[in-house]
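Box 3.1 A note on notation
Throughout this textbook, protein chains are presented in two layers. The first layer is the amino acid sequence; the second is a token string describing backbone geometry. Keep the layers aligned when reading.
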Amino acid sequence: MSLRIVKPGLLTSLQDRGRYGQQHLGVSPSGAMDERAHRLAHLLAGNRQDRDLASLEVTVSGPTLVFDSPCIFALAGADLNAVLDGQPIAPLRPILARAGQALTLQAARPGQGARAYLAIHGGFDVEPVLGSQSTHMRVGLGGLGGRALRKNDILPLARPLPADPQVLDRLKAQLDELRIYLPAALALPARDRMRVVLDEQADLFTPESLELFQTQSYRISPASERMGYRLEGQALQRGRTQELLSAPTCFGTIQVPNDGQPIVLMADRQTTGGYPRIAQVAAVDLAQLAQRLPGQSLGFEVVTLDQALSLSTRQEQAFQRLSDSLQPLRLSLRDCLG
């Protein structure tokens, strides 16, 4: 009743939506870099939207793993050319794996994203730490020993399917007939410019720098990782200086240190920061950021807070519509599990 890691891939870890409620104690939320893909994978694996289960976050090139018992899984995010026992499988739909089958996630196709998410129906039987199964590798917290997965790691499954071949054949036939319609608001059309809301500290920067921030293209530095994306471009200048108190940070907060090169804080961000904040990436575009790689370019487009909230509301409504449409899948799995 487990999943065994044969080859770990470049960087594979357990991640859910994050560890919230301890930031005042200095504990970073961590969690999935692309929460949209993480949530999609779980819905398509037949999990309920109100349950926050961990998925495997796979970066750039993926693992090879063997299912020691039958289960339903789904893939979302970057296209890593997944094959099950040598046969290509489609992302964004539930797949039945039988005991002994091997799943291989290969290398990401150019321009097809940086991170894929593998969700299992019922999730993994891994003990939460501070209410989350997410792995924070910098501090060795959560997941499987607080680290990336290694060869021969075993991940117990919380709800494996029965081994009865007739039951599995019937379930597979139902999955093959399932029609899935992904709402447009959950698609990820490529954007060159991430939508942002200016921070109240934006007025610390010169008008020329605020204009530059919105018009130039930045290159993502090789020094970027899950804690933050360092950007390279023409330096931003402050019009006035003042001592700033450290303040809470969020996923997508854009800070500008003294060298004028912005840093976009990501999933493993620190809990507070003292650099001036120029903007906050709209939540709806965080998935776009998470799927970018070092060396790629991006820019910023300023929107109002109301516009950013409207985009998030539209996305949440789309998740609910998708969840409602997948109720027959959840009922089939419930009947199968008894």
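The first helix runs from residue 35 to 44. The mean pLDDT is 92.
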